[in-house]
């Protein structure tokens, strides 16, 4: 990492600031000493110009539509790799050898069951509870069940906590689904691969044999790869911030799940499908396009736009292909939602408003249609995102814990409230 300086003139003071360059991507101006030198903070709501950490995990070039995990293009990983291999890559920085892969798969598989007491925990929820609410609670509760892997100063405990979360997320997600539909939980079957196991835990019932469809399993595995990490997005930054206080990893990942739930983030796949259902038929699209463009209307085209991607979202392209593969496999020739989606995309991509603001379909635009076709209800979509993103959160959390310069995250503010004033008793208040 090379280093130069830049000069900032503030209030007739001249301050030298270090400029740090990464391997690729924009350089950063190091302002960590700015307050000490000038008595001023920087102001950047939404962190649109602020890098909060150094990272070796994921790189995005939003203008070029590039996404790399540890340097490998997402297209290549999605085409040739599998999800657990991607997990290994994100966690350890290199693709595994055959022996390392076998060992990693075995270690994850050994942890797929959850403590039997967890089953009781579920009974406390209403059957109509949103599965994301259940996930926030259950993943946070893992710290109560697995207290022997909450000491973050012990690398061995950190590793076991990581394995436990990657392995148990599918089990918990499937349990949340089964609970919502009143079916018995299905235990993991560890001779299946990670994603097939998950499909079985979701869709098998004890009274019938269940055969995993390999095309659907491969498609879902690819969807997991696409969602595995996305550098310093809102939920990942939440995990890092929570972890910076020394909180245990289960609590940190629960915080990430809570953040992901929002409709501007992971909740967008659920919101996008609901929007397509609301539009219903292609002839109603112009009405919704007009709503999205109306400044006085809060409606937005869900699954469109991205803070970083201003050209296209490379994940959306792979997702669109996967959608067609899944619909073909299931023999769904005419899906009215797909018709609306394809038409909406065509119209929006030509519309001046969307072109000018560089609003393109993001990954969530097509993922909902695919997951629905596979049999998942909309309320499970963000849960699947959380399942896949868990490895990214853990990799980023581990990187932070291992960084010797790591300190508690503590943003500053521009105070715009009342200046100091004296307390007035109730009797004296007018
Ligand atoms: N429909 C209509 N207008 C939009 C949309 C949209 N989906 N997205 C952005 N705009 C407009 C927005 O009104 C603003 O216009 P103006 O400059 O006139 O005020 C301009 O485009 C810039 O928008 P912004 O909200 O300042 O951009 P942002 O970077 O803060 O927000 C976003 C990014 C993803 C939150 C936003 O595009 C959005 O709300 N999209 C819909 C929700 C969605 O699909 N989210 C999934 C993101 S990808 C998965 C993930 O990472 O979780």
Rg, nearest Å: 23 Å
Put simply, the count of helices is 18
The SSE order reads EEEHEEEHHHHHHHHHHHHHHHHH
- The total of beta strands comes to 6
Shape label: globular
Low-confidence stretches: none
Helix content: 40-55%
Descriptive account of the structure:
It contains 18 helices and 6 strands. It has 430 residues and is mainly alpha-helical. A 3-stranded antiparallel beta sheet has the order 1-2-3. A 3-stranded antiparallel beta sheet has the order 4-5-6. β5 (66-69) and β6 (72-73) form a beta hairpin. The radius of gyration is 23 Å and the shape is globular. The structure holds carboxymethyl coenzyme *A (CMC). Carboxymethyl coenzyme *A binds next to α17. Keywords: Acyltransferase, Transferase, Tricarboxylic acid cycle. This is Citrate synthase. It comes from Microvirga terricola.
What attributes does this structure have?
430 residues, mainly alpha, 3-stranded antiparallel sheet, globular, binds carboxymethyl coenzyme *A, Citrate_synthase_typ-I, Citrate_synthase, tricarboxylic acid cycle
Summarize this structure briefly.
The chain has about 425 residues and is mainly α.
Topology, element by element:
Layout: E1 3-10, E2 13-20, E3 28-29, H1 34-38, E4 58-61, E5 66-69, E6 72-73, H2 74-80, H3 83-92, H4 98-109, H5 117-123, H6 131-145, H7 155-181, H8 194-203, H9 214-227, H10 234-244, H11 249-260, H12 268-279, H13 285-293, H14 314-329, H15 336-350, H16 352-356, H17 363-374, H18 381-402
Antiparallel strand pairs: 1-2, 2-3, 4-5, 5-6
Helix pairs in contact: 2-9, 3-18, 6-7, 6-11, 7-8, 7-18, 8-9, 9-14, 9-17, 9-18, 10-11, 10-18, 11-18, 12-17, 14-17
Bound molecules: carboxymethyl coenzyme *A.
Carboxymethyl coenzyme *A binds near residues 233, 265, 268, 305 and 362.
